[in-house]
Amino acid sequence: MAAFSKVTPKIVDELRAIVGSDRLLLPNDDIEPYTHDETEDYVFTPEVVVKPASTDEVSRILKIAYRERIAVTPRAAGTSLSGGALPVHGGIVVSVEKMNKILEIDRENLVAVVQPGIICQVLQEEVEKVGLYYPPDPASRGSCMLGGNIAHNAGGPHALKYGVTKDWVLGLEAVKADGTILRTGGKLLKNVTGYNLTQLIVGSEGTLALVTQIILKLIPLPALRKAVMASFPTLEDAARAVTRIFFERIIPSACEFMERQAMEVTEKKHGEKFPVSGGEAALLIEVDGTREDVLDEQVERIGSVCSDAGALDLILAEDSSKLAKLWKMRRSIGEAVKGLSAYREEDCVVPRARLPELMTAIREVCARHGLTAMSYGHIGDGNVHVNILKLNLPDAEWRTRIEAATHDLFVRTVALGGMISGEHGIGFVQKNYLGLALSPDVIALMRQIKSVFDPNGILNPGKVFPDA
Ligand SMILES: Cc1cc2nc3c(=O)[nH]c(=O)nc-3n(C[C@H](O)[C@H](O)[C@H](O)COP(=O)(O)OP(=O)(O)OC[C@H]3O[C@@H](n4cnc5c(N)ncnc54)[C@H](O)[C@@H]3O)c2cc1C
Prior knowledge:
single chain; 468 residues; alpha+beta; 5-stranded antiparallel β-sheet; globular; binds flavin-adenine dinucleotide
């Protein structure tokens, strides 16, 4: 474990001179929100929280941290499910919440230029007002910020047709650990000028540089959406139906999976019912486009595929209010399930055709370790969120069982050609499993890249890389 310096009163004074007293918090202030993220029950207290409002302020803060070898944890909204925003070495939390402006919506080039503290849904709603679309939409889009989305390369329901965050990032402004300001890319759809540093920083989980400005691609907003929701006898039946939809040569805009128990918890919490019942699982499959007749034909065909695959109950959501209600319920599942008890959310991703085997593996691993899981996720991408619940297990028993079950589930996932995280990142929680998915040579190369960007290892330490 690298040794980091403490934040002394003199350093606090230097930081205060940069951001002012109203944008600096100490442990005896209201610092609690910065001690955790949405990951399980971990709590780490930072020595100081600063909230810069400009790139220049970020650069000056990092120059001090670099000079003094103080750990720095970049933070956006703190909705990470992998412990990415936890200040595990104390030090300085740099919150980008005050860098929350949409700097430009450029309708000629179809790009938006934004600061990292903008909430994802706020950007989406602003661009929709002028008929444009920014598709990456994590289920947390109402609270997560674009800085966090970039750092985790966030996905979401519409990644199936439109890709994940990386597919929408054209350029970045980012500050290296030593305070150097980098500018990469531009308002360019094509650019092979040098190494693609933009895409190296996207998904680097705040370990390479702190992102201060983002250039995002936009597209025209699809005018129409329709959906099918169907329930299936078993998890495997639902997973098999997914691959059959693609045989129809239809790319749905979203294809979401919900295990029955997770649906029931959500229904109870919100006092509203999903419109399909029966069976172990359901799929919500959406198509989008501009022509009503084309979408009508596609939902009919998807409905037939689901029936042929054994659907027990099926509805077509052809008007926007019905669809909005379905999405509201789907987006509420995570919170409802996580409200049941302490939990660990695994973020397995496999090639789509191996999904039925992943479903079997989840069931077998949880049964072997005496654990309860409720799964849901972006199954069209091969991505399933497995929420393993602590329920009434004593703490020590839970820790032992969850680590063993996570290990076994990841081994099975990798054996299916999968990876241990599809969209939540490795962060703090999964770092010691990285070696199950990546070879020692790949991890060594990643460490070398990290040390080029951040030779003192001050940026988001204790994340991504396995403990020595
Ligand atoms: C209910 C729920 C549903 C979710 N659904 C999805 C989903 O559908 N898809 C999905 O992908 N994720 C999902 N997530 C996970 C989470 O919302 C995403 O990972 C999101 O991208 C995190 O954004 P944030 O603003 O909360 O970032 P934070 O949690 O604050 O930080 C995340 C990471 O980004 C780094 N970081 C933050 N800002 C910067 C910056 N400016 N520069 C460099 N690094 C930075 C942090 O150090 C940390 O490593 C969900 C979470 C919840 C609680």
